Amino acid sequence: MLTNVYCLPGTMCDERLWGYTQQALGESIILKHVSIPMEETIETIVDALAMVLPEHPINLLGFSMGGYLACAFAMKYPERVNGLIVVSNTATSLLDSERQQREIALNWVAKQGYGGIPKKKAIMMLGQVNKAREELVECIQLMDKRLGGAVFIQQLKSSLVRPNLLPRLEKTTFPLCFAIGRDDGLLSTAVLNKMKDSECFNTHVVDECGHMLPMEQPTWLAELIERFFKEN
């Protein structure tokens, strides 16, 4: 039987984000890309998602910013979630360093215009063993270029303020798991250690992987997706 998984992407990512993992999955599970709505706050994005996602319980997966949005959606509409995988996100507030970088980027774009993600920044998002993989770097840059400056500004502004959802997620009744790259420099090590020690969270960490887990470790993620949604 065909299984659909509705997938929310990260900042400046389009459907190409899922291509490597979809190839590893084959045809029994379909990753259905859901674009992030062009809204001004997390709350209004969630309301917009409620209009486009099916009303019946769905298999949900979110990557990075999409992981946070998927958690926010699941908190507001738990009856519409069959199970949730959160990839490269811990459903917490932004690190102070990351928020400062985003504010600097927004100020720069306001003055200079948007020139796309620099190659150096794209490389930084990958784990050490994947930094030399030109096809991954190019894909990150191409996704960014396609979405452009207006989407960049909207996605950064709308996600600057994001409450810590972990305390509420501890009380969820739907199946939930987290998938994290060991070399992901965008996530708090302290938060990850707390999550791994907690009985409330099913947290999986994969080696040789930075932030772009669906592209860096697609076979590992495909196996997790198959296992998780088969069991739930």
UniProtKB/TrEMBL annotation:
<dbReference type="Pfam" id="PF00561">
    <property type="entry name" value="Abhydrolase_1"/>
</dbReference>
<dbReference type="GO" id="GO:0016787">
    <property type="term" value="F:hydrolase activity"/>
</dbReference>
<protein>
    <submittedName>
        <fullName>Alpha/beta hydrolase</fullName>
    </submittedName>
</protein>
<dbReference type="InterPro" id="IPR029058">
    <property type="entry name" value="AB_hydrolase_fold"/>
</dbReference>
<dbReference type="InterPro" id="IPR050266">
    <property type="entry name" value="AB_hydrolase_sf"/>
</dbReference>
<dbReference type="InterPro" id="IPR000073">
    <property type="entry name" value="AB_hydrolase_1"/>
</dbReference>
<feature type="domain" description="AB hydrolase-1">
    <location>
        <begin position="53"/>
        <end position="119"/>
    </location>
</feature>
<keyword id="KW-0378">Hydrolase</keyword>
